[in-house]
Amino acid sequence: MKHIKILQLLSLMFLLPALQREAKCQDKTIQWSGYTWTVKDHNEPIGPGPNYWSPKNVWVDKSGWLHLRVSKNAATGKWECAEVASNEKFGLGTYQWQIDADVDKFDDNLVLGLFDYSGVDARDEIDIELARWGNSGYPNLNYTVYPKQDDPPRHTAYATEFTSPNGTYTTHKFIRTANSVTFKTLYGHLNDEPRDNLFMEKVFKSPSVSVSTIDMPVLMNLWLFKGEGLKEGNSFEVVIHSFKFQPGK
Predict the structure, then answer these.
(1) Three-state SS for 195?
(2) Least buried of 32, 116, 161, 210, by fewest C-beta within 10 Å?
(3) Residue from 30, 85, 36, 90 nearest 245 by CA
(4) For residues 220 and 114, is the Cβ–Cβ distance under 8 A?
């Protein structure tokens, strides 16, 4: 009996560290807009940026709205960012986000990304980004299409200045087909597209643009260009009311 107890104790001693590592490696997930999302958590700087990433900067409120925040950790002095990635993959169809953010007051170093991403940098990626890339003179609304895996490594992008004079509600979407990507930005939270609310529509078509057709996760992030902190204040928050996907026909 004594030998059995010793063997059990030794087994537990070897098993416990493995269980602790497994628990540590389990990613935090949230339920939002009908999907499961994995929250990015890294206490060492990684891309994009590179930045530190904290799950404390991601939460869903009582209204069912997603909050993404960039904040300075008072204890460490490090800036921490926010990102979620869908556990589900999405293909051809319409991707739509309704956000609540004062885009006119974005810090020059702040980047809000709404995109799908294969996991391979600069390949099979479609981006909507609100960012000035550290330079106040740059336009802040960016549409980018990265080529599919086997095509030449040349991405296509368009940028323009965007302001929302009638409030902080805006709708952003892109429509993926087998040979095109159409980006749209609208004032207000809308599921339809009245002409008076349409700020911008931009179409990228193959063969001049390499258009990915693979299924990919959807990501949303709020981060700092080159890891540089906000020029004013210790935090900034964006609220995303909803994400919707409508499969293409």
Answers:
(1) helix
(2) 161
(3) 90
(4) yes
